[in-house]
Amino acid sequence: MPTVVVMDVSLSMTRPVSIEGSEEYQRKHLAAHGLTMLFEHMATNYKLEFTALVVFSSLWELMVPFTRDYNTLQEALSNMDDYDKTCLESALVGVCNIVQQEWGGAIPCQVVLVTDGCLGIGRGSLRHSLATHSQRSESNRFPLPFPFPSKLYIMCMANLEELQSTDSLDCLERLIDLNNGEGQIFTIDGPLCLKNVQSMFGKLIDLAYTPFHAVLKCGHLTADVQVFPRPEPFVVDEEIDPIPKVINTDLEIVGFIDIADISSPPVLSRHLVLPIALNKEGDEVGTGITDDNEDENSANQIAGKIPNFCVLLHGSLKVEGMVAIVQLGPEWHGMLYSQADSKKKSNLMMSLFEPGPEPLPWLGKMAQLGPISDAKENPYGEDDNKSPFPLQPRNKRSYAQNVTVWIKPSGLQTDVQKILRNARKLPEKTQTFYKELNRLRKAALAFGFLDLLKGVADMLERECTLLPDTAHPDAAFQLTHAAQQLKLAGTGGSEYAGYEHNITPLHTDFSGSSTERM
Amino acid sequence: MKIFSESHKTVFVVDHCPYMAESCRQHVEFDMLVKNRTQGIIPLAPISKSLWTCSVESSMEYCRIMYDIFPFKKLVNFIVSDSGAHVLNSWTQEDQNLQELMAALAAVGPPNPRADPECCSILHGLVAAVETLCKITEYQHEARTLLMENAERVGNRGRIICITNAKSDSHVRMLEDCVQETIHEHNKLAANSDHLMQIQKCELVLIHTYAVGEDSLVSDRPKKELSPVLTSEVHSVRAGRHLATKLNILVQQHFDLASTTITNIPMKEEQHANTSANYDVELLHHKDAHVDFLKSGDTHIGGSSREGSFKETITLKWCTPRTNNIELHYCTGAYRISPVDVNSRPSSCLTNFLLNGRSVLLEQPRKSGSKVISHMLSSHGGEIFLHVLSSSRSILEDPPSISEGCGGRVTDYRITVVPLASVIVKESLTEEDVLNCQKTIYNLVDMERKNDPLPISTVGTRGKGPKRDEQYRIMWNELETLVRAHINNSEKHQRVLECLMACRSKPPEEEERKKRGRKREDKEDKSEKAVKDYEQEKSWQDSERLKGILERGKEELAEAEIIKDSPDSPEPPNKKPLVEMDETPPVEKSKGPVSLLSLWSNRINTANSRKHQEFAGRLNSVNNRAELYQHLKEENGMETTENGKASRQ
């Protein structure tokens, strides 16, 4: 989940904060202090997160495009100038553009808005934006809700009392509401000082930037892992089951399946599974990822040399061309697989399926999958030359069952032509002729289109009169018989009009003497 | 998302009164003259469908699309109304398919134009529709049972699509009032029943249809709330294709569908089999498959749908598929499709192609010329899905490689001995099992000879893992431990061990090897340093290296031979594959130069060994080579390895 930090650099942010007996701070210093803390946290515990920094007043500017280089972000914090008034709407429009350009509309992003709660004056102020909200057209749509899945965290360099003395808090709450309730407002508890700012940012970190740790298990083998990005809670059906589902911290592998069988399944999200080394106290030593820090380096080298189940699993899945099915919760599964980023690098990844007993129709119910040895016969064949997947649906889809649709005249004409073409090749095409004839008959009966049956009967009779002298005598008999049967079906009432009744070829025998019956 | 929204239950109420037997007055030519027909034949007069036929085939088309895209949890109940209501199916999943409905409709047949119009009314059907909406579906039942005390969360909503020929606007209002009242009554009944559910929300879609050329007596009216439970909308539509188009629009609205046109599909011409032209096929699917377009406002890629229907279609370009592509795509959604024009030749060509198991990637036409693959069409067991592939930048790009993380530097994970390891633990073995184990062992011997790295790739490893021969030594030791642990199970287990021991170095040689080995190791250490840089890079360059070898091979052959000519000289690891070009008979070392001949004979021997009992000599051999005249060696101290060389000189 990439993060956009949106920092208010309007003049009001330079308002001094009175702190007894120490040097004078401005609100922007408090903000920078809080953000430094956030960046430091991310640099150590959340280092794969992409973060961008936007500053705004009446204009906005992208100071640092999405990066994992927290030094650059930190530097930018100390190079911010002061500008004019606050104009939140245009900044939020800017955030929309930046995120969509970089990540498209499907990747969830977190927007951290840092402001002092002074929302501007006149045109472009948040009050003005909200007042005109209902009069918007499609072209100047208010940027919230963001056109991508999002969380909007508003970090106020002000305490609750200050915000409540004006309508600022109400306006900010409106913003969260407009973002479909996705987000939260943070205010400073008590007097404005570095310590209280720290505790406010600490709450944000706890809420949104704590790494997700889990234990990956397969039989007796286990590994401590970090799952990145954090899997977000998922709501299956807001009405029946409104409580968001959260994935287990024990990730149990329940089976393995060929990549060809799982066949590019749709997933809710995907995550890196990074093995982590824990020391005896259970504290994280590191993910083993190389870092500049030398102490960490040696720790990493030690960690690198201790066998880890993740590496074994990754290698095995890669060599075998398989994925591991992992249990994420009750009736919730995901898959683990080897994902190559480039020729050199590959990784263990986990994708989450939609919760439910049957997330992939072509695998059937997850609960009914089992080991090959449980099957009476190896479903993959003795020579591994077949597969029980994909499962066939009980009913065929329309495109797989030759349905009849006559909405366009061309549909009807094609079906009639098919009959005619085969009629001219009787008796060789007797089987196809009757197959097509019966298909047309069934559809005409279902649609109550009896005129068609009569029409086609007339047409077959005419064909009979047009038969060339060289035609096989059987052709004439079959055409007459078919025409008669169609007419019977069209008149209704008799057994010949039954939907399930099929017109069968007239039994003729031209091999011997003329013994055919009619 | 709500499972039990209005689209969970759809009731079709189709008018079966005498006036529905009237012609829609839209002619269909069915007797098309074909070329090379006899001249002077007058084609048969065109026919026209009745209002009933138009209504039925349009509603069947609605159901076809719905069943294709939502085969489960979206249910239809079909009711025909004349002097009474005929309910053609139930909410059960078994009743939800076109064949069932078609058969039931055939049984009803077309309306009887001579029936007494006074006895017939659409009202019977509407009342039955409300009644049926109160009936619980198996999905609702299941959800209620599962939720126990929260059962009230399971909603009961539905939609009634009524196709009739109304007399006037006030007639329409009368129908609405009737539905309103019936809902009120039935909700009271349902309140006191365990197997009925009260209707929370009902959407009434009244479609007034009339013959082409007539004036409509009923006016259109957008959706309006008649009560908290009932909304109603009125559509006044000419019969024939106009009615079909209307229902097509409605099915898209009701089920949140969107349209994608696949363009540039190459297809053989019917008339000229050796030419191919490009075709377009329009597909319907859930609109979430367009989520990336909708949100990013990428409207420039959309065009208008061919039929001029209300919705836009998004055009995606066919990319000719690579064959047999087993790849795990990052797919953010998969949605069932339904072709708009299911029986047209382009549609059926596309769907048959997919049903045969091929997948097609789809590309967004971009003005800039950059190629963006955003979707994939693929069938899974007779169902075609439109997969949405992630085409934006990945937030997981440039991740740390697994080899850089915990356990990444350990290179001796056992992955290849798997068949043996899983078999040897069995209590009894079959002949086949023994062969399998032997095969595994031979494979390992073969790999060691070729100095292949043991799998679990050291790919991307920065630091040095254990030296390769060290890896093999550890592997052999572990394998021996594993097999020894099971030899008491049976004689066959014993045979596996024998095979393993035969393949490992023999004790008489051990001493000798150690002597030589020590010397060699010293030297290897030095040469190892010299090639250290290379060593670090080489693991992922293996394939590149092999290619290079073939080219460089000849030039370096001479040099390689010099090295080999001295049995004591070390084999620099980077040079080893070179000697695969060599024709020297194998020298008797567990690792070292391997010739084509030895590779070949090893292969043949491995194959043959499965067919007969092993000779005692071979069983005791080292690398399938028995030492003859051992006494001579003892006498004059000549090394066996020189036999090989002597023959070449």
TrEMBL record, chain A:
Quaternary organization: Component of the Integrator complex, composed of core subunits INTS1, INTS2, INTS3, INTS4, INTS5, INTS6, INTS7, INTS8, INTS9/RC74, INTS10, INTS11/CPSF3L, INTS12, INTS13, INTS14 and INTS15. The core complex associates with protein phosphatase 2A subunits PPP2CA and PPP2R1A, to form the Integrator-PP2A (INTAC) complex. INTS14 is part of the tail subcomplex, composed of INTS10, INTS13, INTS14 and INTS15.
Chief site of localization: nucleus
Occurrences of domain Integrator complex subunit 14 C-terminal (ranges): 404-511
Family label: Belongs to the Integrator subunit 14 family.
GO molecular function, one term: metal ion binding
GO cellular component: integrator complex
Record has Cytoplasm as a keyword: no
UniProt keyword terms in alphabetical order: Magnesium, Metal-binding, Nucleus
Gene this chain is encoded by: INTS14
Localization: Nucleus
Name of the protein: Integrator complex subunit 14
Coiled coil: none
Record GO biological process: snRNA 3'-end processing
Keyword Metal-binding: yes
Span of domain VWFA: 3-117
Domain of life, per lineage: Eukaryota
Lineage: Eukaryota, Metazoa, Chordata, Craniata, Vertebrata
Domain Integrator complex subunit 14 beta-barrel span(s) in chain numbering: 209-356
TrEMBL record, chain B:
Pfam families membership: Mat89Bb (PF10221)
GO biological process, any: cell division
Signal peptide: none
Region spans: Disordered: 507-546, 558-593
Entry's Gene Ontology cellular component terms: cytoplasm; integrator complex
UniProt superkingdom: Eukaryota
Regions of compositional bias (Basic and acidic residues) in chain numbering: 558-579
Subcellular compartments: Cytoplasm; Nucleus
This protein's UniProt keywords: Cell cycle, Cell division, Cytoplasm, Mitosis, Nucleus
Similarity field: Belongs to the Integrator subunit 13 family.
Listed name of the protein: Integrator complex subunit 13 isoform X3
Organism, scientific name: Leptonychotes weddellii (Weddell seal)
